[in-house]
């Protein structure tokens, strides 16, 4: 499949207010695609449309067409849709009452990607290794996540999302609250995953977009102002608003 996500003429309203305005995007498979833009521009809302978490927002209305992995998202059961989509939020939110192991194993169990204990162990190990956390937790898998640092907790959330074996990974400012070393580890993990899945990341940081993105879309007040290969957007932005944002003026 050429595009993991295709969005045509998307409008989103919440309580009658237009939050996204005629958004059109084609997200090539096996790339890191960054949605970049200032606070309140609609970045998180756009992610919530892709996995239909928008359905849970009261008085929200969606117009237009959204295809995920070739399927119209409104033609499939949202639970089935979300089985293929991992998500990591801005604030690390592991399940506090579950051990490190069970946090990761849960998704794999729910999705039926492991048939027995041995397979489950393998998926947990693979997920933690890919999230660059394995070495730090392999001897304490039965401990609660409260024993981990904030950055480790966020890598645990990444491992939890990976254990679903998703085809699409959505990340909403995944490193906004963590230190540079943990940020580096997460970015390395994401780069290593590109050959297996498609990653859509939201950030307000042009620096992060520069480091890891293949493509960037600049969102401003609900509209895609400019999109294209990341080098083109970062080095030679065509729109005045993009230029201003990159200089830190918006
Ligand atoms: N549940 C909601 N109810 C009402 N308004 C909402 C809701 N969620 C988002 N909005 C509004 O939609 C607009 C876009 O919000 P969104 O969170 O998508 O922006 P963002 O670019 O992700 O911002 P940030 O970078 O600050 O997270 C904002 O004006 C926000 O107030």
Question: What keyword list fits this structure?
Answer:
10 helices, about 250 residues, binds adenosine-5'-triphosphate, Rossmann fold, globular, six-stranded mixed β-sheet, alpha/beta
What does this protein look like?
The structure is a single chain. The chain has 250 residues and is of the alpha/beta class. The protein has one domain (3-247): P-loop containing nucleotide triphosphate hydrolases (Rossmann fold, 3-Layer(aba) Sandwich), CATH 3.40.50.300. It has 10 helices and 10 strands. Strand 4 and strand 5 form a beta hairpin. Helix 6 runs parallel beside helix 7 (180-193). The radius of gyration is 18 Å and the shape is globular. Adenosine-5'-triphosphate (ATP) binds at residues 14-15, 19, 37, 39-45, 57, 204.
Q: Brief description of this entry?
A:
The chain has 250 residues and is an alpha/beta fold. Helix content is 36%, strand content 27%. The protein is built from ten helices and ten strands.
Order of helices and strands: EEEHEEHEHHHHEHEHEEHH
**Rg:** 18 Å
Coarse shape: globular
| CATH classification, class level | Alpha Beta
Mean pLDDT: 95
Kindly report how far apart the N and C termini lie: 36 Å
Tally of separate domains: 1
Strand arrangement, major sheet: 6-7-8-3-9-10
Portion in beta strands: 25-35%
CATH evolutionary superfamily: P-loop containing nucleotide triphosphate hydrolases
Low-confidence stretches: none
Strands, count: 10
CATH-level-2 architecture: 3-Layer(aba) Sandwich
Number of helices: 10
Largest sheet, if any?
Answer: 6 strands, mixed
- Fraction of helical residues: 25-40%
Give the names of the bound compounds.
adenosine-5'-triphosphate
CATH overall fold name: Rossmann fold
Strand-pairing-aware structural class:
alpha/beta
């Amino acid at each position: 499949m050429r595009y993991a996500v295709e969005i045509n003429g998307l409008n989103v309203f919440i309580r009658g207010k237009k939050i996204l305005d005629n958004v059109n995007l084609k997200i090539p498979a096996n790339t890191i695609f960054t949605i970049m833009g200032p606070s309140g521009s609609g970045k998180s809302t756009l992610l919530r449309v892709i996995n239909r978490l928008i359905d849970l927002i009261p008085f929200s209305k969606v117009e237009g067409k959204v295809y995920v992995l070739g399927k119209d998202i409104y033609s499939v059961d949202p639970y089935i849709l979300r089985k293929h989509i991992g998500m990591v939020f801005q604030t690390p939110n592991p399940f506090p009452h579950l051990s490190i192991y069970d946090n990761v194993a849960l998704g794999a169990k729910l999705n039926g990607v492991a048939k027995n204990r041995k397979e489950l162990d393998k998926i947990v190990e693979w997920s933690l290794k890919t999230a660059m956390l394995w070495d730090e937790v392999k001897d304490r898998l039965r401990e609660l996540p409260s024993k981990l640092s904030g950055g480790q907790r966020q890598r645990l959330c990444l491992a939890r999302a990976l254990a679903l074996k998703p085809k699409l990974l959505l990340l909403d400012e995944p490193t906004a609250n963590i230190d540079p070393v943990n940020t580096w580890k997460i970015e390395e993990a994401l780069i290593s995953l590109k050959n297996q899945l498609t990653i859509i990341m939201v950030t307000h940081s042009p620096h992060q977009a520069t480091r890891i993105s293949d493509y960037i879309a600049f969102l401003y007040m609900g509209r895609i102002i400019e999109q294209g290969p990341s080098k083109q957007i970062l080095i030679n932005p065509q729109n005045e608003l993009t230029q201003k944002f990159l200089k830190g003026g918006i």
